[in-house]
Amino acid sequence: MSENTSxxxxxxxxxxxxxxxxxxxxxxxxTRFPPEPNGxxxxxxxxxxxxxxxxxxxxxxxxxxxxxxxxxxxxxxEYVNSIEEDVQWLGxxxxxxxxxxxxxxxxxxxxxxxxxxxxKAYVDDSSAEEIRQMRGSLTEPxxxxxxxxxxxxxxxxxxxxxxxxxxEEGSRVLRxxxxxxxxxxxxxxxxxxxxxxxxxxxxxDKWCIYPxxxxxxxxxxxxxxxxxxxxxxxxxxxxxxxxxxLHTLEIHHPQQIEFARLNLSYTLMSxxxxxxxxxxxxxxxxxxxxxxxxxxxxxxxxxxxxxxxFADRIGVAKANSMIxxxxxxxxxxxxxxxxxxxxxxxxxPLKLVITNFPEDKEEIFEVDYFRHDKEKSETRTVPLTxxxxxxxxxxxxxxPPKYFRLAxxxxxxxxxxxxxxxxxxxxxxxxxxxxxxxxxxPESIGGQAPDGRRVKGTIHWVSAAHAVDAEVRMYDRLFxxxxxxxxxxxxxxxxxxxxxxxxxxxxxxxEPALAGAQPGDRFQFLREGFFYLDPKxxxxxxxxxxxxxxxxxxxxxxxxxxxx
Length: 564
Ligand code: ATP
Ligand code: MG
Fold this sequence. Notes:
- Helix content is 25%, strand content 23%.
- By secondary structure, the protein is an alpha/beta fold.
- The protein folds into three domains: 6-259, HUPs (Rossmann fold, 3-Layer(aba) Sandwich), CATH 3.40.50.620; 271-341 and 470-563, CATH 2.40.240.10; 345-371 and 384-460, CATH 2.40.240.10.
- The strands form seven sheets. It has a seven-stranded mixed β-sheet with strand order 12-25-26-27-23-24-13.
């Protein structure tokens, strides 16, 4: 019998422990992740993946990847491929081949025939509208269909002819004969099969009838020998039906267990709405770094370790709640902070000329990549020359109180290099500052004042002669509202898009050690944040960096700006 050796206990592991104790599944644990291939996976799916694969791993069990491809209209192979890639990127391995609900269409059809033979399913000629009306409401029981008492023979004949394509789309359905007065609407003779003359991405035109989700799902779980069918809370009311089909067919009966879906603030969690963002070009595709898709998160530079850690931290609950996106960002920072090389990059450059620094001189510094970490000793060389770039906002001609960076007459430290004092500014015809002139203290090479005088500000810089050019894309939250769908009448979630969610800086200057950076490399840009060299758009002659996450939460600032 498998045993849960990990400390990771929750209400789902409690249920599994009980089963293992009673021997219900002979100690076996087999879970599945069952996405519908109708869009890219998002961070909510990541939680479900971590849960399903994680729990099986914890018990030495297995997990299937099964595409729930019962709706031929919205599905696409592009989505199938992206989903496989995403699961693997997260670091999980499904058992055996990728599985498809459509592979069970023959078996599901046989199951349907069996339920008809048992007198527990019937072909209904009512229209969709009539069926809806007869279903009743939460306060009123439903009404039996006039076709409910057809004989088994007639039902078998009609269902076979539905399959043979003899009837028009929408003219008939197969329904389970359960209970039209059940307080659970799902039990009021649910539809099992509908006629759909649609080409399926795997079965082509073989079928013109397709099983509903409810009929396909549990039986697919059963066929695969799933023991614990973990799904989100909205399926709780479907569990009696899940059980009814399996019980009626007397086949292997997995346990369905529901958990609360992940809701994240400022984040959309619906494939349908994410598809709209892509189709209407509010974002640059499913893998836009602002998207909450796994593909988008990956392109922002987040590591799978951080996604898994996040899933662990939020845990599993039985009640729906909202998780603060700041927790995700925090988890990403904690993952990257200890491991990324810290380098200097100037995002909005302003030229600084050290007027007493000889033109042909180069001062070379050997600088640790991991100054904060005594265990790591890797270094690079950083050259200082007469002209360097600093950040525009590290200079202020008229400094506000508590501004400790460079200003006329002030002395600051060029990080790891020396102390400079501002002597002059050069402006263009419009009065814009185009250069700052400084003198340096030759005795301060290395960064310390020889007489121990205090210098409050330390700014980063890059030698102009050695700078590596780059484009840097600064990303922020895609939505302005905590709940993007929260909109006044007549508006929709796209009205809540953050107009500043993507800012492209085309003139960034990087320290020369980054000349050889490879697509997929990550760095901490000192005083700025964590950045990822975009593998999709970087070319040998053009580097594109994506902001993964800033050092601190810049969100409050942006909301303030937007509201003013
Ligand atoms: P969406 O509403 O975004 O289209 P879905 O539930 O229709 O999502 P599926 O492809 O059917 O997407 O989902 C595959 C699995 O992922 C299901 O088991 C589902 O319960 C789970 N899942 C989907 N969204 C979330 C979420 N926000 N949190 C946790 N699990 C989720
Ligand atoms: Mg779905």
